[in-house]
Amino acid sequence: MSILGKIFGRIFPSARAAEKPQQPTTQTTPAGGAPGAPGAQGTPQQPAPGAAGAATANTAPVAAVERVDIEKVLDDMASKNQQKLNWRTSIVDLMKLVGMESSLQERKELADELGYTGDKSDSAKMNMWLHKEVMRRMEENGGKVPANLKD
What we know:
Number of helices: 7
Number of strands: 2
Distance between the termini: 28 Å
Strand order of the largest sheet: 1-2
Strand content: under 5%
Radius of gyration: 21 Å
Order of helices and strands: HHHEHHHHE
Structural class: mainly alpha
Helix content: 40-55%
């Protein structure tokens, strides 16, 4: 799993759980075409029970999941944490808050994953970029992120 995926998994548990039931219900079609197409002997195959509605039921976008209030979720996590973590501006503290390793190596891997093109030896600049990019990606993926956390 990607580092960003781990962060999402710890902040968006309800969104992750909502995706799981959709995966096993994916309808596969035989090489000859749609369900019910003639088989090798020319006899029609019976569609799987509920196959008629399966194609439309699985096309609903995951975005239909209620937007997650990122600030509220992280504030709640912070209130239960013994450490005083500044997750609002620090990628290190954000990673610690969600129970992840926040080492320089881990952050460099996250930077690679997110497409950071700056100098990774300038960790302060990289960390600021990472925090903004993680917030931006959370918003793109169903999170409600206040403007002050994206600046």
